[in-house]
Amino acid sequence: MKSILVPTDFSAESHYAFEVALQVAKQTGGSVTLLHVLEAPEASTANFSAYGGPVNGNELPNSNGGIDQIFIVKLMEVTKRRLHTLRAEAESLAPGVPVEDGVEVGRIGDGILKAIERHGSDLVVMGAQGHGAMENFFVGSNTERLIRLANVPVLTVKHQQAQFEVRNIVFPSDFTEEATGAIAGLQQVQAAFPNATVHLLHVTDGAETQATQQHEQAFAQRAQLINFQTSSISASSTSAGIEHFAKQVNADLVVVPTHARSGLSRYFNTSIAETVATHAFPPVLTYHLA
């Protein structure tokens, strides 16, 4: 979690994500890159050269070629000013944390995926339920696409976190053999928040069994967890059980591993991750199984 990408539409929710990203970067010694995706005219088919060359944190497209490009230049100037304002704010919120900014021109989802690769990001922190130009990204199909396709963890933030101190982490699973692929990601989370308690959660439609407890203990041993608790909760659905338990233990973070493949445990279905990411109160971290 050293190189953190924060997509922003300048909404309140994206600002909450920015604040959390700064706190994570400060704690882990990382850096933050702010990203705004500019959906220009014909952005779905155009490439950067159509706007006068590559667009990044320091370059602007030229205005040769018509009213659309003039509009793009003006919009780019306004966007850059707003990004620079956020960078200035970061100096007071998290002194010493390096903050850069960038602009992508194109489809929102594609722009974010390209930016992950371009900046070598290892974490995306984004606001959920945003408003404005990126609303469809934050709450619609682009969110689902990012969770499915991003090759790095995605942290969604829905509410302002005055102080993002992670003391309680909820990790839902059935803790069978398939869950082994989630260990590496969980260990990275534990390394980032070494003082947090990891709540290993199994959501059932009945009472907890001895076999479930044994699976949880065996998983904790394989993952070399030190500060953990095993728990189970009965609920009508996996996502509802996760949300209820997160409130019950006052969770600061919910960690949901996922995989797009079919045939895996219901815990790793992307639909579960998407539902929890956009509904659970605390920030939710999703990542792909190894």
Automatic annotation (TrEMBL):
Lineage per the UniProt record: Bacteria, Pseudomonadati, Bacteroidota, Cytophagia, Cytophagales
Superkingdom in the source lineage: Bacteria
Protein name: Universal stress protein
Domain UspA, first and last residues per copy: 1-158, 166-287
Pfam family, one: Usp
InterPro entries, alphabetized: Rossmann-like_a/b/a_fold, Universal_stress_UspA, UspA
UniProt family annotation: Belongs to the universal stress protein A family.
